[in-house]
## 1
Amino acid sequence: MALAELSLRDLRCIESAELKFQPGSNLIHGANGAGKTSLLEAIFLLGRGRSFRTRLNERLIRHGQSQLRVVGHSTAAVLQHTLGVEVSRGGGTRARVDAQNVRSLVDLATCFPVQVLDPDAHRLIEDSSTRRRRWLDWLVFHVEPGFTTSWSRYNRALQQRNAVLRTGQGELEIWDAELVKDGQRISEARGRALAALQPYWADVSQSLLDQDLVLSFQQGWDRDASLAEALNAAAPRDRLRRTTTVGPHRADIGIRIHGKPVRQVLSRGQQKLAAVALTLCQLEFLKQEHGIRPSLLLDDPSAELDRDRLDRLIARIKALETQLIITALDRDFDLFGTPDAVFHVEQGRVAAL
Ligand SMILES: Nc1ncnc2c1ncn2[C@@H]1O[C@H](COP(=O)(O)OP(=O)(O)OP(=O)(O)O)[C@@H](O)[C@H]1O
Ligand SMILES: [Mg+2]
């Protein structure tokens, strides 16, 4: 899968731009603040319905404008899709695939799988569990049919249960039954996906960090109890806190070294490498086991890594044989080989070279 064409309007500092990408490697260069990362955000938005830099899509709308629009064409062998995303102030995010409004942003992800490695990658390790759940769920979604259906139903039931807890009106038990059915499915699917990923993780993390990092799945409730039992046991506490404190929405990924969380042990640069390894092992897994090759956005890939690590990372990324869209300050950036297409950005204006 690759992105062939991209056009955008009123995203961050970019008033309008059109780019034609190559299936191999593409370089976007320009000075600080020129709009390089903004272009990657536009691409990510097409495949994920959100940015990798902010939770709030409205922040992507150019100052003084009421709406942004991104349109792209993705290609895979004989398949072609046209994807479009619009974000309006106060009006949310709307997505279209092949001129049809899509029910959920999941349809975007199917037509244009995309991943990113950026200088904030370490936040996957440092921040709250939300990022790690999202990391896992993106993978699960690609390999477990029916996952997103269960996920949406679970979240609807969870909102209802939380409403009962907030208002004190209604029966908790009605929603518990719904939560249990889909919650178990979600958790089993996550567990299977993570188990299948383990050999890829062991290989990638060892090669980037020279250390054995242990990846574990924390399902979001007591390991020895069923979800039904856990919800039951948590009910008094949930009533007190007015929210559901156990379940798959509280799942996390543990990353440990010699039994200790990596956050406590590894340097910042090493945490970044661990985060990069998490993303990279998914890409290797998807390629090897499922023949899926997401486009990979690399925002300023040489930042913060020593030359030796960077070389190892580059070798593995090249071996993915996937579309690369790379940003750099320097026109001559060629760590991933001579780029097949080069763009220059200056004050939000994009030119193909
Ligand atoms: N909503 C917005 N409307 C207009 N401009 C914005 C908006 N959000 C951010 N900007 C501006 O867009 C510019 C481009 O930002 P971007 O992060 O894309 O630059 P960059 O080329 O990646 O720079 P760097 O090399 O420093 O990473 C910045 O000057 C920023 O202030
Ligand atoms: Mg940038």
## 2
Amino acid sequence: MNFSFSEEEQQFQHRITEFLEAQQHKPYGADALDFGRWADSQLADTPARREFNRTLAEEGYIGMSWPGKYGGQDMPGIYDYLANEALAQFGAPLIGKGCGIIGKTLMRHGSEKLKQEFLPRILKAEVEFALGYTEPGAGSDLASLQLKATRSEGGWRLNGQKTFNTSAHFADWYWVAARTNPEAPKHKGISLFLLPLTQPGLTITPIHTMGDHRTNAVFFDDVFVSDDYVVGEIDHGWTYICEALDYERFSIYTISPLRKAFDMLCESVRKITRDGVALSQDVQIRRRLARLGTEVEAATLLQRRVLMAAASGAIPSVEAAKFKLYSSELGKRLADAALDILGPQALLRCEAPHAIAEGHWEHLYRATPLDTIGGGTSEIQKNVIARRGLGLPLQN
Ligand SMILES: Cc1cc2nc3c(=O)[nH]c(=O)nc-3n(C[C@H](O)[C@H](O)[C@H](O)COP(=O)(O)OP(=O)(O)OC[C@H]3O[C@@H](n4cnc5c(N)ncnc54)[C@H](O)[C@@H]3O)c2cc1C
């Protein structure tokens, strides 16, 4: 049994790490790569981050696993994973949404027009997307979504509301699920649309989360989408959304921020002395760190199982649910432990005079719960594991 990466894969890790180290010294480096803000790596948009993304694309790191006929490099999916882990390690934006979710779904189900319009722009990092699924009455039970799409000449008119749509205030295009057939059973009357976020009738208002991230509520007032921008077949959207959610769990959740935070905590414990005694000598702290270290290792191996399943051609939904559940809950335990171990100074915000690690721990404590909600809550991951993994269907 061999859990390590092949020689080629390790060479790739080395190459992208060198590339990222070099980017830190570019004029945009400090803003584009910032581990202190790792938890918002998907969310923040600045000119520096866009410039960084374009450089990443020019170097061929975007769409490596895409088929050659769509401009990809036909490389195994593991390289996308290795790239994302390296990016997360440096606090750089990940390659998830456009390349991992929208691009892959369009390749399978999009019309020729949509493929030609979007795939080359995704590969060049010229376009940012927001995902429009959740509504005030439809989150975990997404199939209950009510955004209404009614037939209009040459297209559809959308009316209703979405909520928690991250990036909608800066992205270019919107990937939106709406109900096209209210008479059909709830999983069968949903369709997927692409529309520009500048489309008349859209109102985007901020929702500020406790982790400092901005997400958005979006209101639709007779928003027109032409037939050309329907993804796949009308009323078949649920199937595409489920596939896209599998890509999301696979492509957006990374382990390296957790490993890095754990290493930072150990480093602090090695250095800090309290009341004349080194923290590293405290038995309770040593035990807690040993346990957390074991858990970080377990999370890493759960992620390898996702990779193994994906490499064998399966859709790793149960494996991805286990990894997401375990690693996101571990993120909270790690932040909790850091505050207990490092004491009151770790509770100070970054702007406070005596804050340690630039307020990283206090921020981590507020930001990690979001990971247990976005992309499907922990309870929903448990449902997936129970139903699909353990064969325990819900009896109605
Ligand atoms: C930071 C962040 C970013 C997000 N970004 C996006 C985005 O870009 N686009 C988008 O569309 N959405 C986004 N979301 C929304 C996210 O997908 C939903 O918040 C999530 O699916 C939960 O839905 P909800 O908030 O409606 O909670 P609900 O579904 O109302 O759940 C409330 C509580 O009930 C529990 N619960 C619900 N159903 C069950 C069940 N069957 N069994 C057991 N427990 C259950 C849940 O676990 C939760 O604890 C984001 C959320 C966050 C936090």
## 3
Amino acid sequence: MGRSGPGRIVAIVFSSAVVGILSWLVYLAFADSADTPQSTWRPMSDNAHNIHTVYQVVFYLAAAVFVFILFLTLLFTLMFREREGEVAKQFHGNSKLEVLLVAVPVLIVVAMMVPSFKAIAQNTADPPQGALEVVAIGHQWWFEFQYPELGITTANELHVPLDRPVSIILKSDDVIHSFWIPQLVGKVDMMPGHTNHMWFTPDTARDDPYFAQCAEFCGASHANMRFRVFVDTAAKFEEWSAATAADAAKPSTDLAKAGEQQFTQSGCVGCHTVKGSPVALGKVGPNLTHVGSRTTVASGVLANNAENLHRWLGNPASVKPGSKMPNLGLDEAQIERLTAYLESLK
Ligand code: HEC
Ligand SMILES: [Cu+2]
């Protein structure tokens, strides 16, 4: 079968070159994307490493199959193409080939299955002793974080200490959401009426946040339901948790004091908690006790600054379509005061 001599060599060289160039382009695309902040190709926790190992096994096996099949397709197309004096021949009933065609895929599937089962068993095991417990609750469209042992309730920015296992208890207040920090852990569903668990041990502290987001379509602002994770050194985490467990700072400027009153008058207190305030006890929206210390507002969508707070208070739905925070029809002076108050909540 096939032809011999220079024709075959040309076909092999040509097919290899095409497949080689294609593979190189695919590789470049991936090598580049490895540095993007949501890439799972830079795992930074024990369980993220486990998941990445499975991913690599599957990815490289699939890549090998792809390259090999592409190469054979090109090669055979060239070698066995119809030409003057050549007649296409059909054959069937080659049992050696058939056994091979079943055995090789079975081996490939087993090679993917073993590390998958191992990773699933590790990731769903009980968290190690001494893990820090965090209850994460999904809301349309923001994340609430409670640290029962530290007396902290916060939102949209999760702080965890380096090298200590973190046990996440996942719940939902309304519809199904999914908790995903690509470089650290996930994704696991947050279900109404059912509690899920997972854990991870972050291995790289840094000042930059890890980006995270809801990974289960949950309505109009699903794409705007993000959060940030800060992996702090033990000392920095200690500092953060002491500050965050404390009552809110009292406003010191006249404008911020006026803002505190406005906060009650405009009914913000019915939906938001500010720890230490006798009236701000609402549980509908994010806990704002230390909102002034967060880097973002509106679940990671806006940088936390005066301009963006204006924008948010002026019309939340312009930032997040369908937002559960209503447009309260505030005038410019009211927004000014409220912004000063919110910024004072360090
Ligand atoms: C009916 C309940 C409700 C009222 C009243 C309300 N909010 Fe909200 N607020 C929410 C909800 C829900 C969110 C979360 C929205 C989201 O991120 O999708 C929110 C988010 C916020 C945020 C962003 C917090 C963060 O960490 O991302 C700020 C700031 C805020 N509200 C301030 C106010 C102020 C000031 C008032 C009063 C003028 C007010 N809210 C009134 C429900 C309410
Ligand atoms: Cu979602």
## 4
Amino acid sequence: MPEQIRVDDEILLQRSFDTPAEVVHELVHQNLEHLGRFLAWARPDYDVEGVRAFQQAGRERWNESGEHGYSIFYRDEYAGAIGMRGFDSPVGAASIGYWLSAHLQGNGIMTRSVSALIRLGFETYDLNQVIIRAAPANGRSRAIPERLGFVETGIERQMAKNVKGEFLDLVIYSLLRSEWQG
Ligand SMILES: CC(C)(COP(=O)(O)OP(=O)(O)OC[C@H]1O[C@@H](n2cnc3c(N)ncnc32)[C@H](O)[C@@H]1OP(=O)(O)O)[C@@H](O)C(=O)NCCC(=O)NCCS
């Protein structure tokens, strides 16, 4: 995957481990409540060392296992992250996960970023399908695959946790290359 992806004139994706850990840490801390509803890692004790360890693992996975994490910059401001894993899947099925700072929601940043990764996956990396999972109550997250024409295919029961340690079901969405409208 490229080190940078220019989504459009407002949005740039850049390898996540190229973003200073302090920058990631600051934005995540500003958003702990917002993120913790659906993401188990957004804990109050999330610290810069944890970011560095995560980035180091990301650097290794980038080359070894077909997993790619990007920082999202919106009008040059660090806005959140998006990742795609499963490039090494024997059936060409990759999945996408994401988060965005609360104050930048509502601008289509994530829908546009997801759309750019889908295009790259189908056109350049020979993927056959892209999968997105979201908790049933996560309306904003579910709206992204729904907006992009994904098909809801089922539910994985208790396959995620929130920051309180409560189990979350996940609704599965998938988009096949044959369904993709470009
Ligand atoms: C999930 C999450 C990324 C969604 O963020 P979002 O801002 O709602 O999604 P987008 O950036 O795609 O923006 C969509 C909104 O922008 C609008 N929009 C504006 N321009 C747009 C464009 N060019 N394209 C698409 N939508 C556009 C849409 O109409 C929509 O508006 P609405 O909020 O009134 O419905 C965010 O809520 C989040 O990070 N939540 C916490 C973490 C999380 O839950 N992660 C996912 C775990 S599965």
